[in-house]
Design brief:
Layout (H helix, E strand, L loop, with lengths): L2 E5 L5 H11 L6 H10 L2 E6 L5 E10 L2 E9 L8 H15 L4 E7 L3 H9 L3 E10 L4 E9 L1
Bound molecules: coenzyme A.
Length: about 150
């Protein structure tokens, strides 16, 4: 399927909020996405005719390091390489800006996401105890220096 990646816009929010509620037990609020759109590192992967959002990725750049703050792929499109495509895209964007350090947190039980990040070379650097709610769970902190 032909896809493209473009910046997330306010018009995307209804579809994104629907996905967020389906994919996460503690979904982000619309306001959190609003802030990400302003922060300029928020992207959506859409099909060729821009008819539907397949996935999205958000990041926040602080002190020369990008925190990947959100990543999701619609259930019916998972395991097709789209998560990988989104991570590759945001990393390449940041490399163009000479940003070489990446950081993220992920639920300890989220093996698909951890495997995906490890594929890019992210390494586990620590645990934040009871970081997440609903359900309460530890966060694995991961870092990638390129
Ligand atoms: C995590 C997520 C974004 C992965 O997206 P995806 O498009 O399905 O992933 P890809 O098809 O690009 O897979 C890339 C790699 O990730 C790993 N991976 C992805 N899903 C996996 C699964 N269910 N089990 C094991 N490994 C998995 C594999 O290493 C895979 O490489 P491979 O296909 O060569 O084995 C997706 O499962 C998702 O949206 N989950 C719900 C939201 C979420 O947990 N987001 C992450 C928050 S930190």
């Amino acid at each position: 399927m032909g896809t493209e990646i473009r910046k997330m816009t306010l018009e995307d929010l209804p579809e994104i909020m629907k996905m967020e509620k389906e994919l996460f037990t503690a979904p982000w609020s619309e306001y959190m996405f609003f802030k990400e759109i302003k922060s300029q590192y928020a992207y959506v992967l859409v099909n060729k005719n821009n008819e539907q959002i397949i996935g999205y990725v958000c990041g926040l750049k602080l002190f020369g390091e990008l925190s990947i703050t959100n990543l999701a792929v619609k259930k019916e499109f998972q395991r097709c390489g789209f998560g990988e495509k989104l991570i590759k895209y945001i990393i390449n964007k940041l490399l163009e800006e000479k940003c070489f350090k990446f950081f993220l947190e992920v639920r300890e039980s989220n093996h698909p996401a951890i495997k995906l990040y490890e594929k890019f070379g992210f390494e586990q650097i620590g645990i934040q105890v009871n970081y997440y709610n609903n359900p309460v769970e530890n966060a694995v902190m991961m870092k990638l220096n390129l």
